[in-house]
């Protein structure tokens, strides 16, 4: 266990548990960049890393492990222990928290279903889903954009990509909300809700896989089932664990990005006008998506654990310490981006953001998330020439890692 006292003491104290609820956490994170860029928070028992170069280096530094220590089952009441064991076993198979060689093997397998051609081939289907959702939105008045669009779009797309029926979308939303708590929800139970959700998802997928094996199609689930059944050495637990990861990661973040993107554009009318004037220009739309990812990219930070004792910029990190890599702060570091707090859809270097992480765990679904945004934004803006925020009183999701709004009221036609 480290102490803050490696040096004379940090100039400021920041409690990362309070960050999710802040209307604008960036000034505080930028203060850390200047005053204590490798900051020990006693409140969270974690190091907060905020500068671009450090966060990026942290993503591919093998001294920072992704695999997480989990409490022993004996710490829980007896009736819950079986569910907890199953949850712990499932997490151990998730590629995002696996180390090599397991990580390399699982990622290589999953990557086969996510080739650029396979993703681009989804464009017409994504367009169709987008048009259907937009047609169902009211032509005027207030409406919750998250409920009517930002959630259902990525959920339907990930279901299509993975190969599960859309009938599970309602449950998927609930399961994902519960699983997200496992990433850190201050003041809430971060073990039981994700454990029960994982249990339910596992039961569903077991049945679904059994049925699908008899009738294979052409989706990721079929590819992974074949890998489990063939020579590619994927166990049933790994198959199910990584399907859960995909279903969760595939829509939760994109949902947040869609709503934060629309909110950011509406709060920057000149940028919105520039985008509206150039909706047929794919490079302008793509630039807007990259700048949205940089400016407010759906994640605060990603968690790592020190795999060994080491020194980092004069700070003594101890084996087992938690390390929070703040991508949101990194993407607002003036050392990397000129005037980082200016939202500019024509920024030439916005693509250098690290909203999708970096290094071995770099997001596998980045191209799909980008495609969804590039199809959805122009269609939304064309359908609604007049759009505004009904209010800017945002209640943020209580999560230390995922940044998003559970609801966002849009005013259509005004
Ligand atoms: C706005 C949308 C998205 C954002 C901001 C995002 C962000 C990220 C980040 C930062 C990581 C790295 C995690 C780490 O290093 O600990 C990651 C990994 C991952 N993402 Fe995404 N993601 C998005 C969408 C998606 C989608 C649509 C999918 C599925 C199709 C997906 C699947 C994954 C998977 C499987 C990994 C683990 C990769 C590995 O461990 O090798 N993500 N994502």
Task: Provide a descriptive summary of the structure in words.
- The chain is α+β, with helices and mostly antiparallel strands.
- The protein has a single domain (74-299, 349-412), classed as Cytochrome P450 (Cytochrome p450, Orthogonal Bundle), CATH 1.10.630.10.
- The chain has 16 helices and ten strands.
- The chain has helices spanning 26-35, 52-59, 78-93, 102-111, 116-120, 123-136, 145-150, 152-162, 169-181, 192-214, 220-229, 236-266, 269-277, 282-296, 327-330, 366-383, and strands spanning 38-41, 46-49, 64-65, 141-144, 302-306, 310-312, 315-317, 322-325, 387-389, 409-412.
- A hairpin with a 4-residue loop joins strand 1 and strand 2 (46-49).
- Helix 6 (123-136) runs antiparallel to helix 8.
- It is globular.
- Residues 1-7 have low confidence and may be disordered.
- Protoporphyrin IX containing FE is lined by residues 59, 66, 95-96, 107, 158, 245-246, 249-250, 253-254, 257, 297-299, 302, 355-357, 361, 363-365, 368-369.
């Amino acid at each position: 266990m480290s102490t803050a006292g490696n040096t004379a003491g940090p100039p400021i104290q920041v409690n990362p548990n309070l960050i999710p609820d802040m209307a604008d956490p960036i000034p505080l994170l930028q203060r850390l960049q200047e005053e204590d860029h490798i900051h020990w928070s006693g409140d969270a028992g974690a190091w907060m890393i905020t500068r671009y170069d450090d966060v990026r280096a942290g993503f591919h530094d093998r001294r920072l492990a992704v695999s997480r220590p989990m409490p022993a089952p004996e710490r829980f009441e007896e009736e819950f222990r079986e569910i907890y064991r199953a949850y712990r076993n499932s997490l151990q198979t998730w590629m995002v928290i696996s180390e090599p060689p397991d990580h390399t093997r699982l990622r290589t397998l999953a990557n086969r279903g996510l080739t650029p051609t396979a993703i681009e081939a989804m464009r017409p289907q994504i367009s169709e889903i987008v048009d259907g959702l937009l047609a169902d939105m009211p032509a005027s008045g207030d409406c919750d954009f998250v409920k009517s669009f930002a959630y259902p779009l990525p959920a339907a797309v990930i279901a299509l990509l993975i190969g599960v029926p859309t009938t599970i979308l309602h449950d998927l939303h609930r399961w994902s909300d519960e699983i997200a708590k496992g990433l850190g929800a201050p003041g809430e139970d971060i073990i039981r809700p994700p454990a029960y959700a994982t249990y339910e998802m596992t039961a569903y997928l077991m049945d679904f896989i059994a049925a699908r094996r008899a009738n294979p199609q052409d989706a990721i689930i079929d590819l992974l089932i074949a890998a489990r059944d063939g020579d590619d050495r994927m166990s049933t637990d790994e198959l199910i664990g990584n399907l859960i990861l995909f279903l969760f990661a595939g829509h939760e973040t994109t949902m947040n990005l869609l709503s934060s993107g629309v909110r950011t554009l509406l709060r920057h009318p000149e940028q919105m006008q520039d985008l509206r004037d150039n909706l047929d220009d794919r490079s302008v739309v793509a630039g807007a998506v990259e700048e949205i990812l940089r400016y407010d990219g759906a994640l605060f930070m990603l968690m790592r654990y020190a795999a060994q004792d080491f020194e980092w910029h004069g700070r003594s990190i101890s084996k087992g310490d938690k390390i929070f890599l703040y991508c949101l702060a990194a993407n607002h570091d003036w050392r990397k981006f000129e005037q980082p707090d200016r939202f500019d859809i024509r920024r030439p270097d916005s693509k250098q953001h690290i909203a999708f992480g970096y290094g071995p765990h770099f997001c596998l679904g980045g191209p799909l998330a980008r495609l969804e945004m590039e199809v959805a934004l122009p269609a939304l803006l064309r359908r609604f020439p007049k759009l505004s925020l009904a209010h800017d009183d945002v209640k943020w999701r209580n999560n230390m890692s995922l940044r998003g709004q559970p609801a966002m009221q849009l005013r259509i036609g005004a």
